[in-house]
Amino acid sequence: MKTPSVFKINLFTFFKLPSAWWCGVRLKSIDEKSTVVTVKHRWFNQNPFNSMFWAVQGMAAEFTTGILVSTAIRVSGRKISMLVQNNNANFSKKATGRITFSCEDGHLISEALRKTIDTGQGETIWMKSVGVNEDGVVVSTFNFEWTVKLKS
Known about the structure:
Elements: H1 6-16, H2 18-23, E1 26-30, E2 35-40, H3 54-76, E3 80-91, E4 98-103, H4 109-119, E5 123-132, E6 138-150
Antiparallel strand pairs: 1-2, 2-4, 3-6, 4-5, 5-6
């Protein structure tokens, strides 16, 4: 699968996801199996407890999973919708400094897309994104249930 450039995806973020852009969410790497996104704790994205607001972490985490799904859909050449149906998160440490979110569940997408194309039925997949601080300590873990379905 040919993945788009990091620059193009970050440019897309600026125009189509401005709240993520202004909060500092930036794609660092992408391939067909994984993505890495960073976001730095700053005044603009903090909560009253002087750590990163949970929703900012959620934007970065969702971005790691969503960009893998949308890239696979684009490569398929089919008109397929995608939507987060469920999510859950665990926060294990205050998020300060630069937080790096990574998702390594890209391998799950191709099978779900194949099934939805073959059957015309919607498919769901759970994808995980883990956020670590600069010391390598996990600060949060997000799980997103993505649904994919052929557009009629």
